[in-house]
Amino acid sequence: MTVTELVSYEDALATYEPVMGLEVHVELGTKTKMFCGCSTALGAEPNSQTCPTCLGMPGSLPVVNAVGVESAVKIGLALHCEIAEWCRFARKNYFYPDMPKNFQTSQYDEPIAFNGYLDVQLEDGEVFRVEIERAHMEEDTGKSTHVGGATGRIHGASHSLLDYNRAGIPLIEIVTKPIVGAGERAPEVAKAYVAELRELIKALGVSEARMEMGQMRCDVNLSLRPKGAEKFGTRSETKNVNSLRSVERAARFEIQRHAAVLGAGGTILQETRHFHEEDGSTTSGRIKEEAEDYRYFPEPDLVPVAPSREWVEELRAGLPELPRVRRNRLREEWGISEHEMQSVLNAGVIDLITATIEAGADAASARKWWMGELARRANEEGIDPTALPITPAQVARVAALVAEGALNDKLARQVIEGVLAGEGDPDAVVDKRGLKVVSDEGALGTAVDEAIAGNPAIADKIRGGKVAAAGALVGAVMKATRGQADAARVRELILERLGVTE
Amino acid sequence: MPGTTDLTKLTAAETAARIASGEVTAVQVTEAHLDRIAAVDEKVHAFLHVDREGALAQARAVDDKRARGEKLGPLAGVPLALKDIFTTKGVPTTVGSKILEGWIPPYDATLTQRLKAADVVILGKTNMDEFAMGSSTENSAYGPTGNPWDLTRIPGGSGGGSSAALASYQAPLAIGTDTGGSIRQPAAVTGTVGVKPTYGAVSRYGMVAFSSSLDQGGPCARTVLDAALLHEAIAGHDPLDSTSIDAPVPSVVAAAREGDVAGLRIGVVKEFSGEGYQAGVMQRFNESVELLRELGAEVVEVSCPSFDRALAAYYLIAPSECSSNLARFDAMRYGLRVGDDGTRSAEDVTALTREAGFGDEVKRRIMLGTYALSSGYYDAYYGSAQKVRTLIARDFERAFASVDVLISPTTPTTAFPIGERADDPLAMYLADLCTIPSNLAGNAAMSLPCGLAPEDGLPVGLQIIAPAMADDRLYRVGAAVEAAFVDRWGHHLLEEAPAL
């Protein structure tokens, strides 16, 4: 393998304009496979979720999963696509041991959805429109495990194991039109597109779209053309780039690699490339000297799919608010910046904050708890914030207790800790742990007097006008009351006792 | 009361009636047929696998049901010969190919399930051209089948095992599949009845695919009524077959019992005559036309000009689909595996297995189809063939606008000698000239005997063609013709066949 001397990103972009095409495969979250009744649940014993149809046994036939078609139409509509009035499946013929029929049932020149777009928002708020070529339905293949080799690839393996549980799981392939005009932001656009698409798929409820589980996989096609040129350059196809960060890195790497090859007077081979997580590089896969001939023809075992206009409109009417629109609306309602919203998005707590607000909390406190204490806990335990054993309603109750002065922040954190520890609802934790702000003026007055008597030097400073020194006395009182006092009131009492005003 | 030897001569309807009345038991009937198979099938070679134990178990179950006073279906206890293209759970299914030698399917075809549900006793699996590709059963990897009228001649194909089983009284009922004539042409050359129902009438689930858009399973019998009874047992919507018709099955049994052509308009397809048609075949066909007139039908000539291109279109569409359908036979999951000695790659093992496992005709069609679907050739071949298909469907539409059914000879010649056309694929393909248009258009058609050709004394078939979903018309016309001929001859044609 020759190591390519990369050109710096800035130099590459000074000479060339990148053109990208992104192909994303989404595994639908249907209960059963695309063409048979087998379960799609992950993690089952190999080959335990198979039947004559998904094993391609002689005589078996496919039947289309209606929920799969509905999901495809929803995705198409959410991507502002036209929905075919009549379309067919097609057979894509090629041999591979993990493909039971040695053809993949897919769609060819009659995709269910076509001609759409997705507006994606970059981190600074700039909106970039990505045009969608098509979205079509197909089935996944089985999974090969090559055993005995060093790399896990087939080369050097002694034998291979085949698991057909994945064979026949519904996939939607979403293909963009060439993405031009993104310039130096191309890698960022690629990442934002995949991120936005993932949010969209999740919002539609058609898949969990977890990239780390292979439920969403991205191929990054990239070419460069000299700035100002019309004609596209030769593209490389980087396969199975399976995280948002990797999408950005793969695009960036390929821009630098292409620029290096072209700059040295070389030509880009039309080939597939493998992406390497460790260092963000790509290496050559298989060369596509001529287009592979898949001998597509309409699948004769399946009748055409003809979604009625009424049904399509019904689905359109039932679409949820698109994630970007919703995010912008919430950002305005919550009164936060693009940057803060991005942090909320990254933390994966938008829905939790929304639910907490719906349960009665104000936006600032809902965001404060989920972005602060709770995000930290989730992070520590390595789980999704949604998996924390506390509900938005419980968080809203804590916020309410703080708002009415029954708890201060410190106590509130203890209440949350109690809820997370399974001690019950916030009110139950408050009772059990005896957590409440000390507001008995007599008890507080005694504590304040003791603090002043115990710290005469500080008291003198305050008397002398150094109001800022009051903090130390407040701390002493809070310590004496085990944090249960209302700090603001304590401060008032101290200043009152010492005859100082602010 | 007849002796057991006579039980094999009964029709399915008579057999069922005698079992229902208790005159004979299903076990007696089954044993009689198993004995007949044991006696003659060494000569005929209709069966690839006889499921003696399974058949007797089914027969005993029928007798038990009757003993318990349960109501029996119209074909309960009647034996049947099943073409070896339908999967049978636990019973070998080879499709006449070495590549599936030893494969025991883990599931029943929908048709198999329906036969079992109707208490039809499945005697075994019948011989066929490999993957249903052929018109003589000579392409079977397990050796040819003889025509009971003359064992040196072909019994038709691909369903030659089923037609020969009927004609040699090894079973009163059989199942065939018809992609280009594989039910009708064997029926014609053996003096039996065969029906290709409307495409989608009989589920294809569990029927090993040759050409998905053309394949259709259907009933084979010795009488029109028996075929109708079997038709109703196997037809009907199947949610496991996307192309299955979701509508009530036409009342074919009632139509077969009616048997009347008075007042019907019947079209003679002009294109199915002339050069290549045997004189004796045309003579019997013309007599059938006269007979229909005598029975009160109006017979007119109809032209279907696109039918001349049907054969060419068929030999692009069928191989194209088969090249894809047969790709799954790769030695990975089931069937034959050759050369897996631990040193060869999966690709090599697949290649060696296919080389050893597929016969010449299958390889020929896979190559033709692969070529026809190739990029750059698709439009000229597969695309054009689909256009011809549309033209043929339009010809039928136009014809059926003015007539109720069409008729023609089923096949241009009587049974030819085994080996005569084996090395001449084009001559072999001509046997399906008259049957192919109905497969391309998806409508229904029947073949029934209309006499013996004077020059060779061999059966001639009359083809009746009905519009899609009007399968009942086949039976109405077929039953009338059959009754008139039986009346004229004094017996069923098959009774003239020589003893084996």
Automatic annotation (TrEMBL), chain A:
GO biological processes: glutaminyl-tRNAGln biosynthesis via transamidation; translation
Any single GO molecular-function term of the entry would be: glutaminyl-tRNA synthase (glutamine-hydrolyzing) activity
Which PROSITE patterns does the annotation name?
GATB
Sorted alphabetically, the keyword list is: ATP-binding, Ligase, Nucleotide-binding, Protein biosynthesis, Transferase
Q: What is its EC number?
A: 6.3.5.-
Q: Which InterPro entries match?
A: Asn/Gln-tRNA_amidoTrfase_suB/E, Asn/Gln-tRNA_Trfase_suB/E_cat, Asn/Gln_amidotransferase, Asn/Gln_tRNA_amidoTrase-B-like, GatB, GatB_Yqey_C_2, Gln-tRNA_amidoTrfase_suB_CS, Gln_synth/guanido_kin_cat_dom
The reaction(s) this protein catalyses? L-aspartyl-tRNA(Asn) + L-glutamine + ATP + H2O = L-asparaginyl-tRNA(Asn) + L-glutamate + ADP + phosphate + 2 H(+); L-glutamyl-tRNA(Gln) + L-glutamine + ATP + H2O = L-glutaminyl-tRNA(Gln) + L-glutamate + ADP + phosphate + H(+)
Q: Which SUPFAM superfamilies match?
A: GatB/YqeY motif (SSF89095), Glutamine synthetase/guanido kinase (SSF55931)
Q: Which SMART domains match?
A: GatB_Yqey
The organism's superkingdom is given as: Bacteria
Q: What do we know about how this protein assembles, alone or with others?
A: Heterotrimer of A, B and C subunits.
* Similarity remark: Belongs to the GatB/GatE family. GatB subfamily.
Protein function: Allows the formation of correctly charged Asn-tRNA(Asn) or Gln-tRNA(Gln) through the transamidation of misacylated Asp-tRNA(Asn) or Glu-tRNA(Gln) in organisms which lack either or both of asparaginyl-tRNA or glutaminyl-tRNA synthetases. The reaction takes place in the presence of glutamine and ATP through an activated phospho-Asp-tRNA(Asn) or phospho-Glu-tRNA(Gln).
Protein name, as recorded: Aspartyl/glutamyl-tRNA(Asn/Gln) amidotransferase subunit B
Q: Which organism is it from?
A: Streptomyces buecherae
Gene behind the chain: gatB
